[in-house]
Design goal:
By secondary structure, the protein is mainly beta. It has one helix and eight strands, in the order ββββββββα. The strands form three sheets. The chain has a four-stranded antiparallel β-sheet with strand order 3-4-5-6, with helices on one face. It has a two-stranded antiparallel sheet with strand order 1-2.
């Protein structure tokens, strides 16, 4: 579990909020589109819920300056800020399973 420290407006006391990461019990990749820059967009059903337009984005600075993919949820721009439509708060094992499956399917 991850611990997130939050502060209420007008309060000097910090509260700890426990954020539980969800385990991936089953998933299915529905659609994949590979872009010219190497990024991948996909739709997937994860634990019975369908998520659309999720992206795998390549970065050279993921873990200790090693390259790798990370999952990015779709967002919209309002003013100067971007707001995500949803968050996939999955455990590391589940994220790795999904990333590996999407990369493998995109190479076929």
């Amino acid at each position: 579990m991850a611990t997130k420290v939050t502060k209420k407006a007008g309060s000097t006391n910090k509260e700890k909020k426990v954020v539980k990461k969800i385990a991936v019990t089953n998933f299915e990749i529905i659609r994949i589109h590979v872009f010219d820059n190497g990024n991948i967009s996909f739709d997937a059903t994860i634990n019975g819920m369908t998520f659309y337009n999720v992206s795998l984005v390549w970065t050279d600075k993921l873990n200790d300056n090693e390259g790798g993919y990370f999952i990015s949820e779709p967002s919209r721009k309002v003013g100067d800020k971007y707001y995500k439509y949803f968050y996939l708060n999955l455990n590391d094992e589940g994220l790795d399973k999904i990333i590996d499956a999407v990369v493998e399917a995109s190479n076929e």
